[in-house]
Design the sequence.
């Protein structure tokens, strides 16, 4: 079963500001993640996970019961952890 992707408004807005080819690359990767999240997600602090896409990182919460991947933060690698 494919998982559902949910965006925090600030994360979605950030991706919208990126060049179209980069934004498409990110969306393509998220399509792959929705098919098999455990292949791509790495455990992060507490119950959180992170996803690497080139120089960008997404901090993610996973709702296992409802199969929802919630993207909380999306930014450049150097800024996402601050």
Sequence:
């Amino acid at each position: 079963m494919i998982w559902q992707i949910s965006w925090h408004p600030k994360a979605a807005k950030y991706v919208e500001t990126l060049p179209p080819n980069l934004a498409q690359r990110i969306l393509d990767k998220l399509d792959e993640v929705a098919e098999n999240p455990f292949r791509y997600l790495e455990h992060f602090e507490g119950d959180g996970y992170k996803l690497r896409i080139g120089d960008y990182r997404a901090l993610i919460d996973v709702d296992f019961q409802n199969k929802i991947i919630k993207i909380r933060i999306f930014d450049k690698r150097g800024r996402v952890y601050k």
User: Anything to note?
Assistant: Residues 2-74 form a domain with the YaeB-like fold fold (CATH 3.30.2310.20). The two ends are 34 Å apart (CA to CA).
